[in-house]
Design a protein that fits this description.
about 200 residues, 20 strands, seven-stranded mixed beta sheet, alpha/beta, 5 helices, about 30% helix, UDP N-Acetylglucosamine Acyltransferase, domain 1, single chain
């Protein structure tokens, strides 16, 4: 089994493997090119992101600067937006659904390191995949930790550290991130009324 195969399976692996180095250099080149683009080059930005990621949906937008380890382990759905300073460490798969919005400085980290110092000092590490559902808003300075699944129709408050799975249809916040409350029909009614007022102006 190759080091890359071990990495993607969530097993201990050596990151200094030549295949992984090549994949990392590819990602560094593409993110450098992306981060050097201007606001007048939206089509080129999309072209670079499409090349970088494993798959992308329609209408994705990321504000530079952006960083990732490999890019080729990231799948993004339709209508995705990430604000400035997004970091995705994709040593395992990162799957992001449709209509996901990330505030500034959101970090999505699949990488982990052994607790035992001798194993860690041997330059062995591992990762766990992250899944983010549809219609999710993640506030600024939030960290999504390895192995987490965020459900559909979720709001994560800014500054949260998400260490456990978050179910569908909730607002969650804190360090560690916990469910604050369910998203209710009253929330829907309130915001639909605000939308009607906007449309009438």
């Amino acid at each position: 089994m190759t080091e890359k195969e071990r990495m993607l399976r969530g097993e201990l692996y050596a990151a200094q493997d030549e295949e992984l180095k090549r994949d990392s250099l590819r990602a560094r080149r593409l993110t450098r090119l992306f981060n050097e683009t201007t606001e007048e080059e939206p089509e080129y930005r999309t072209e670079l992101l499409t090349e970088l990621f494993q798959s992308t949906g329609e209408h994705i937008s990321i504000e530079p600067p952006f960083r990732c380890d490999y890019g080729c382990h990231i799948r993004i759905g339709d209508d995705f937006y990430a604000n400035y300073d997004c970091i995705i460490i994709d040593v395992c798969d990162v799957a992001i659904g449709d209509h996901v919005f990330l505030g500034p400085r959101v970090g999505i980290y699949t990488a982990a390191h052994p607790i035992d110092a001798e194993v860690r000092d041997a330059n062995l590490e591992y990762g766990e995949p992250i899944t983010i559902g549809n219609s999710v808003w993640i506030g600024a300075n939030t960290v999504i930790n390895p192995g987490v699944t965020v459900g559909n129709n979720v709001v994560i408050g800014s500054g949260s550290v998400v260490t456990n799975n978050i179910p569908n249809d909730v607002i969650a916040v804190g360090n560690p991130c916990r469910v604050l409350r369910a998203i209710t029909p009253e929330d829907k009614e309130y915001w639909e009324e605000k939308q009607r007022e906007y449309m009438e102006d």
